[in-house]
Amino acid sequence: xxxxYAPALREQQDIIHANCQCGYDSQILETLCNICNTQNxxxxxxxxKILYLPHPKTPKNYHxxxxxxxxxxxxxxxxxxxxxxxxxxxxxxxxxxxxNIALAFSLFYQKPSIIHLPAFTNIELGEDRLYSLFSFxxxxxxxxxxxxxxxxxxxPKEEKITDFLQRDLL
Length: 170
Description:
alpha/beta; Rossmann fold; six-stranded parallel β-sheet
């Protein structure tokens, strides 16, 4: 099992904004580590790792700050930084924020994507078929619950993606 985390662009800003952005990414990666470590204890036969696909224009020093801030409990879950979405084609699912990479991942690989937006308390998207391809979460607890649900049974989301692709797109 591989989980891909691909945040949107993190722009170089003042130290307060940089710390918030790096802290947010560290929290997501810690949540993923905790999930993988829990799954490792339950299913030791599966490989578990996290792929991290930073936006190519995000300053390199942000990645160092993020990894130094990580506080994953043992057993350590490997986090591998990758440079392209193609390297994540075997991932089970994608976690991102407001990035359009969720659309590419779900349509190219027909796998589930989670868009995590903790600043929102209520996300109302109507009946748009495109948005039904994704899961949306607004808290880290909700993110963890949604990931575990998808890992246990990815079929419903994969079926929605297949159905979407088999219909007329317009």
